Amino acid sequence: MLGPVILAASRSDRMRRLVSAAPVTKPVVDRFIPGETVDQIVPIIRELTDQGLELTMDVVGEDITTPAQAEAARDAYLELIDRLKPLDLGTRAEMSVKLSMFGQALDGGHDMALENVRPVVEAAAEIGTTVTLDAEDHTTLDSMFAIHEELRKDFPQTGCVIQAYLFRTEADARRLADSGSRVRLVKGAYKEPAEVAYQQRHEIDKAYVRILRTLMEGEGYPMIGSHDPRLISIGQELARTAGRKLDEYEFQMLYGIRGEEHLRLAAEGHRMRVYTAYGTDWYGYFMRRLAEKPANLRFFARSMVSKG
User: Fold this and answer.
1) Closest by alpha carbon to 138, among 224, 204, 213, 196?
2) 212 and 234 in contact (C-beta within 8 Å)?
3) What distance in Å separates the CA atoms of residue 284 and residue 89, rounded to the nearest whole number?
4) Which of 20, 10, 76, 55 lies closest to 255 in space, CA to CA?
5) Among 55, 247, 248, 253, which residue carries the largest CB count within 10 Å?
6) Is a pLDDT exceeding 60 seen at residue 302?
7) Which residues are known catalytic residues?
8) Around Cβ 182, how many Cβ atoms within 10 Å?
9) Model pTM greater than 0.85?
10) d(Cα 17, Cα 131) in Å, to the nearest integer?
């Protein structure tokens, strides 16, 4: 049960300093976060799309404490979109955003986040692509869904993320499937209390399958966010049973995890989108990747031993 411990550490300033200062950290972080700047990430975008993969781009950073920082996050995404424009990738390269980066947790944060994210969604639409709103901890979700609904009035292609481990998600999935939304389903990567979320892996997996069936049978566009081979196979079967064509759903996996599987699925004709993060404020993102999967933590631990 190391996951909750690691998630707690992701909020610790002391752990941030220790991990950031460790000599081994940068090469390990580079496995999951291939660049810190737009200049560094554009060649990665070209490389992955040349391999037949699609991308969703995330500018990392969540600890926003001032409106100026929220505006800077908005501007970072606008810079990314400006650099994507000449690549002419359309929906092969979309954006994922966390509304906490756009000021959601500040005073007046709901309106601030909507005001800051709207120009990003508008700019994405202008180059033929879209934005997906990432899910964060359960206290932020009503605001996220309200912003999603508001944005879809003008930009119906705007997507959102739901998390299988939350009790509320089955009802959210039915509502979103009926409205024809683009929905990424993930297991969930935040430390949530037992009164709102399943705590056992087998319960989360069963909920994931139930929710994915709802999405596949609905009117929307399901995005299967998982590295679990069993859930990937179940997703393929649910899609076939629902009569979906290969371009009517997609798989999504993180950069740096199961890269050969990315290429295998793409070679079979599936839409395979790689969640690719970049930026300097990588700590929270990195720690959640360790918490999600024991193999990631073992990889980091072995690196620290071998480099120590």
Assistant:
1) 196
2) yes
3) 29
4) 55
5) 55
6) no
7) 134, 184
8) 23
9) yes
10) 32
